[in-house]
């Protein structure tokens, strides 16, 4: 009988809390299989089994505090009673891993989030070494921490009928999630096939992120030239005619899309990834049919993205056929610049398009069914953006608006019990997106109530263990950078199952994902909002530093907005940041790194922020939270 003791967790800590027990009595485990998940003030880790055997006794339970040296489990390994060998600390670069049971040489210079990385080969495996097999070797294995409990289907060993048409991985969808996953797989030496039915780069490069930002930039240049040139000392003669050449604007957008999309195809060829154009149909969880040919793979990655949702209201179908009612894809290729636009929906996409059309001089009415626009954001951001947009003479924001329907070129809505009919050139409906699962609806994938493919764990596995879902199709966070990151995580997990030496061991952590809105001004946000802190009874502190006190903002002629930082009071780590203003989307990365590394507000305050930059506002807000006083306000 092997008595498993909780080892020295290092970093000056001697105790932890059991977050989740990952095994059951009588369960057979291998050395390295995760036993339980422990949380400490400095590091969170899955603790692996130091020996193989059967779980004979479990002496811990969730939320239990444990200390170093405490016996937590007993494993029947067929031998006489032994205990986990003690951990001896040294000052050498390779020391006993303080965050796992047993002796695993690792570098003491870096603590990783999630699973500890394996260092030199040793007899006792690290937690990361067998993490992936632990998920597949036993049907009753509890899903990874922080995920849904799903009935998982364990894939049986697959024998390819035609080795020449068999791949380690087939990726369906060549958007930013799919093509990044394919490249990562190729880099790890995995034979990879990617299938795309449309344009390489998917929604983001072709009808999403890139074209919208291109149109936003052209509009901003026009707006600055016509409205702000005089303030910068640039005089335009009275007879000068400054106009928008909409055809040229569209041509610039198409040139950028073409360049990026062809760049993706170049990367496929450069990395020797087989790619096919056509619509994929899954015959089972190993077999894909495309263009009349069948291909097989050990693992599948679904990266099929999403399409815009639509409302089913009176007159909407007819208005769409007539070209009056648009979705976000249609709005990117209008034949002419509209004079009047109605936008239904005050979320991210609605606000970006409102800002874009207004910058070209269009009259914009934004109809929002809720009391505020951007309701998912920190309240201070929503209020500030509403104030800034409403101050423009060509944007009208109507909240609590109930859409009734469309009559020819008029949008009918009700507010405060009064019906209004608003005429416009176009109406854009921006009411969310829905997953594209066509071709995969017959293999038994579990879905959420909203039709997204459900993630079974933080490695983007579905309920079928050799099928992964990344990007918009899983509905977790519909952001391009999330899709790319999920693609890397999924491929690393597949490579780990195959025993690839250089595969990474990371999980998807949605708590530290930055979100960006490319309106004017920009918005960037990460972590908890102040409203969430209050709802969750978190002991926190927040501070806002205005850009009006920043020299670079004054020089740029754009002093709108602020930086808002939120910290928890016990350890003073950053748990949220919310920025509105010029270059907010570039500044948020500093906070993302700080949160990922669990930096304290003191470390941010003590970091030297270059002058003059907009990022000085981050340092100023950090200084205020650290000392209670500002330096330049």
UniProtKB/TrEMBL annotation:
PROSITE patterns: BIOTINYL_LIPOYL, LIPOYL, PYRIDINE_REDOX_1. Its EC number is 1.8.1.4. It catalyses: N(6)-[(R)-dihydrolipoyl]-L-lysyl-[protein] + NAD(+) = N(6)-[(R)-lipoyl]-L-lysyl-[protein] + NADH + H(+). Its cofactor is FAD. Keywords: Disulfide bond, FAD, Flavoprotein, Lipoyl, NAD, Oxidoreductase, Pyruvate, Redox-active center. One of its GO terms (cellular component) is cytoplasm. Gene3D superfamilies: 2.40.50.100, 3.30.390.30, FAD/NAD(P)-binding domain. GO terms for biological process: 2-oxoglutarate metabolic process. The keyword Transmembrane helix does not apply. The active site is a redox-active disulfide bond. This is Dihydrolipoyl dehydrogenase. It comes from Williamsoniiplasma lucivorax. The lineage of its organism: Bacteria, Bacillati, Mycoplasmatota, Mollicutes, Entomoplasmatales.
């Amino acid at each position: 009988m092997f008595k498993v003791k909780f080892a020295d967790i290092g970093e000056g800590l001697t105790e932890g809390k059991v977050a989740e027990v990952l095994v059951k009595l009588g369960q057979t485990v291998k050395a390295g299989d995760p036993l339980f998940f422990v949380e400490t003030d400095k590091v969170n880790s899955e603790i692996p089994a130091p020996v193989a055997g059967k779980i004979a006794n479990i002496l811990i339970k969730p939320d239990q505090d444990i200390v170093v040296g405490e016996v937590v489990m007993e494993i029947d390994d067929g031998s006489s009673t032994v205990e986990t060998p003690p951990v001896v600390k040294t000052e050498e670069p390779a020391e006993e891993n303080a965050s796992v049971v047993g002796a695993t040489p690792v570098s003491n210079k870096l603590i990783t989030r999630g699973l500890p990385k394996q260092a030199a080969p040793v007899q006792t495996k690290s937690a990361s070494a067998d993490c992936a097999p632990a998920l597949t070797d036993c049907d009753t294995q509890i899903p990874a921490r922080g995920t849904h409990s799903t009935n998982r289907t364990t894939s049986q060993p697959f024998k390819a009928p035609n080795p020449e048409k068999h791949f380690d991985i087939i990726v369906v969808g060549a958007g930013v999630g799919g093509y990044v996953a394919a490249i990562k797989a190729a880099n790890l030496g995995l034979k990879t096939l990617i299938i795309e039915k449309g344009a390489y780069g998917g929604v983001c490069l072709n009808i999403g992120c890139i074209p919208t930002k291109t149109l936003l930039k052209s509009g901003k240049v026009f707006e600055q030239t016509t409205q702000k040139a005089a303030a910068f000392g640039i005089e335009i003669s009275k007879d000068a005619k400054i106009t928008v050449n909409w055809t040229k604007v569209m041509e610039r957008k198409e040139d950028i899309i073409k360049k990026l999309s062809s760049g993706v195809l170049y990367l496929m060829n450069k990395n020797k990834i087989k790619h096919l154009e056509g619509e994929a149909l899954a015959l089972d969880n190993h077999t894909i049919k495309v263009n009349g040919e069948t291909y097989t793979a050990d693992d599948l990655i679904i990266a099929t993205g999403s399409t815009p949702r639509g409302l089913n209201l009176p007159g909407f179908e007819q208005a769409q056929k007539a070209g009056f009612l648009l979705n976000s894809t249609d709005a990117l290729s209008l034949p002419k610049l509209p004079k009047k636009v109605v936008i239904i929906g005050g979320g991210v996409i609605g606000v970006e398009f409102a800002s874009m059309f207004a910058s070209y001089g269009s009259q914009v009415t934004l109809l929002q069914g809720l009391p505020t626009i951007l309701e998912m954001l920190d309240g201070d951001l929503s209020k500030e953006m509403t104030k800034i947009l409403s101050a423009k003479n060509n944007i009208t924001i109507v909240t609590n608006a109930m859409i009734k329907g469309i009559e020819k070129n008029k949008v009918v809505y009700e507010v405060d019990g009064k019906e209004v009919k608003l005429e416009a050139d176009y109406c854009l409906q921006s009411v969310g997106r829905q997953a594209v699962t066509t071709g995969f609806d017959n293999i038994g994938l579990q879905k959420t109530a909203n039709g997204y493919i459900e993630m079974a764990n933080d490695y983007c596995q579905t309920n079928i263990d050799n099928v992964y879902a990344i990007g918009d199709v899983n509905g977790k966070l519909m952001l391009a950078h999330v899709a790319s990151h999920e693609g890397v995580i999924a491929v690393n997990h597949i490579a780990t199952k195959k025993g690839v030496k250089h595969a990474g061991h990371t999980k998807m952590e949605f708590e530290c994902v930055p979100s960006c809105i490319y309106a004017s001004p920009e918005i960037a946000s990460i972590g908890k909002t102040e409203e969430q802190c209050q709802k969750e009874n978190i002991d926190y502190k927040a501070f806002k530093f205005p850009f009006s006190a920043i020299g670079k903002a004054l020089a740029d002629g754009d002093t709108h907005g602020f930086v808002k930082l939120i910290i928890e009071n016990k350890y003073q780590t950053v748990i949220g940041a919310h920025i509105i203003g010029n270059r907010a989307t570039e500044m948020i990365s500093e906070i993302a790194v700080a949160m990922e590394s669990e930096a304290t507000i003191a470390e941010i305050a003590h970091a030297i922020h270059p002058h003059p930059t907009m990022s000085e506002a981050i340092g100023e807000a950090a200084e205020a939270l650290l000392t209670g006083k500002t330096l330049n306000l």
